[in-house]
Write a structure and sequence with these properties.
The protein is built from two helices and six strands; from the N terminus they run ββααββββ. With 98 residues, the protein is an alpha+beta fold. It has one domain. The strands form two sheets. A four-stranded antiparallel β-sheet has the order 3-4-5-6, covered by helices on one side. Strands 1-2 form a two-stranded antiparallel ribbon. The termini are far apart.
Length: 98
Amino acid sequence: MGGIERDGEGFVVPAGTLAEAFGVSEEEIREKMRDEKITSRSEIGVGEDEGLWRLTFIYGDRACRFIVDETGRILKRAGFPIRTTPKAPFRKEGLPRG
C-alpha cells in the first residue's frame, strides 16, 4: 500500500492505496475519480483526536476510511459497506409522490 502524503492543508492518497482498498485496478480508480464516481471527505480531529485526520472515500456501496497523522502515516484503515438511498421520485409539479 502506498503512502499518503501531506499536500499543504490536505492529503494526497495514491491511486494504488485506493485500488487496494476497493479491490479494483489503479486505472479504474483514476477513471472513477475523473468521472466523480468516487467521492471523498476529510475531517480533522478535535479534543482527544487532535492531530489526526479521517479520510473517507466512497465508491458505489462501499467506503474506505483512513485515520492518518499530520505526516499522512496511516494509523488505522477500514473498509465497510454503506447504504445508498435512491433519490425520491418527483411528480411533474415537483412534489414527492405519496
